[in-house]
Amino acid sequence: MAYNKPVPVPQGESDFYWEKAKKGELWLRKCNDCNTPYFYPRDISPCCFSKGTDWIQASGKATLFTYGIVQRAPHPGFVDDVPFVTAIVELEEGPKMATNILIENPSFDNLEIGMNLQVVFEDINDELALPKFEPA
Amino acid sequence: MTDLRKTVAIVGVDESDEIGKVPDKSNLQHHAEAAYNALEDAGMSMKDVNGLFTAGTSTLNLAEYLGIEPSFTDTTAVGGSSFIIHIAHAMAAVNAGYCDVALVTHGEAGRSARSRAGGNASDPGSQFETPYGFLGAPINYAMAARRYMHEYGEEYARQGMAEVAVATRKWAQLNPKAYMKDDMSFDDYHNSRWISEPFHLLDCCLVTDAGGAYVITSAERAKDAKKKPVWVLGAAESHDHNMISQMPNLTRTVARNTGPAALERSGVSHDDIDLAMIYDSFTYTVIATLESLGFCGPGEGPDFVANQRTAPGGDFAMNTSGGGLSYTHSGMYGMFLVLEAVRQLRGECGERQLDNPKLCLINGTGGSLSSTGTTVLAVD
Fold first, then answer.
1. S-S: B50 plus which of A95, B99, B315, B335, CB 3.0-4.6 Å?
2. Which domain holds residue B235?
């Protein structure tokens, strides 16, 4: 069945992020002024508003910061997915990002805030893969 | 900072002609009807208006539709709190002499609209949230509530949320314009279906069709208004993120800054407030906001609202209209906080009227717990 969820439209400063994701790698921007990684990718850092920034590869390890279990699909593309887990995860490098947790029969019992997670990549079309997380 | 207390007053308020489920009326119709009614309430006409404020559509659309050429125009749009923030902007504009009669309108066919705008693909959320189903407030706010439960206890937080839902419904039962007036028990709350866990249906605001408007003018012109002026004492605004995944602290909104700032500028303290109008997009929004404003400490919200303290007859009057949870919520609800505040301060609320309130604090929250505007209103 055709993928009919919202699809990201990469922008100039995020092309690299999405190209790497397609190869199964999660990359972050880092501010060289304060040596702090940040998410989402921006050429100028939000911490110091510095143009001195690099890309770094993330380990793919994260912990669960918070989540919700969506029972009513917010969009036709998610109808077959409910219940599904929306989550904010804290990457090992520090930044937080929005994602989904891939887990069978999600509930307050099998999702514990602080639990260890590992990134996985879901191919959504020929160009793009979404980083998602599963219990480590 | 310049002392602007009582330099401007709200002199007219009203909803659009019908609110709730109103098929076949567009957003702009709700704006226009509400404007018509609010100007009549003020004893003014559209010819008097020279400052125009709205959110959700451009004032370009709105001014053309209304047939005016404003000398001050402001489409500050930071979510449902915008209409609280417009009070502060109107106060500044009137004091600077850019306009002397400011009209602020809202209209949203949240239930019946025939078309909806999509997101902008170049906004970060389109790449980094919506592909994961971070779509709509119930999903985004639920994650903040889940974090609150983790920090302060699930059962404890749940009871606080239930108290807010049940108390707010009791107020709605006293408001003829309220959309949901059926009895709600605690069991009804706990048994209502899940929308986005931890939110039950009855944690979530309504989705209605509604418009609202208010008129602000200088102290000088307020003397000629039909009704007694409702003074603006002080206001503050801020935002600390847009996407929920970027929120610095999921249990503290930026009302932590705007609350204390608005009170200081108003020269009053928490204990002076007779009525709190708190944006209740969700039950959790109220808990987090009461704490952030400083009515109680972090994690103390559920205790603060315990035992139906905010219900009719309780000792902390809050959301006496029945709120976004039970009276009306068109999408950007902030406007309706102002309407109820003004009516309570004027003594126009019939069965739900408080005993001679003098001071009301309004706090609007917009986006994904992103923006807040806090304002204190008063009557002599």
1. B99
2. 8-113+205-378
Buried b (16+ CB within 10 A) or exposed e, B304-336: bbeeebbbeeeebbbbbbbbbbbbbbbbbbbbb
Residue B333 maps to a domain: yes
CA angle A47, A65, B331 (to 5 degrees): 80
Q: How many domains does chain A have?
A: 1
Q: At what angle do helices B154-172 and B137-152 cross, to 10 degrees?
A: 130
Please enumerate residues of A whose Cβ is less than 8 A from a Cβ of B.
5-11, 14, 39-40, 65-72, 74-75, 78, 81, 83-84, 86-88, 96-100, 108, 113, 124, 130, 132
Indicate which CATH number applies to the domain containing A75. Answer: 2.40.50.840
* Chain A residues whose beta carbon lies within 8 Å of the beta carbon of residue B199: 68
Number of domains comprising chain B: 1
3-state SS, residue A3: coil
Residues B197-209 pLDDT 10s: 999 999 999 999 9
Query: Residue B125: inside a domain, yes or no?
Result: no
Indicate yes or no: CB of B147 within 8 angstroms of CB of A113.
yes
Q: Is residue A3 part of a domain?
A: no
Residue B68: pLDDT band with limits 50, 70, 90? very high
**Which of B132, B198, B246 faces A86 most closely, judged by CB atoms?**
B132
A86 within some domain: yes
- CATH code (residue B80): 3.40.47.10
Q: CB distance from B123 to chain A under 8 Å?
A: no
What is the complex's ipTM, to 2 decimals? 0.94
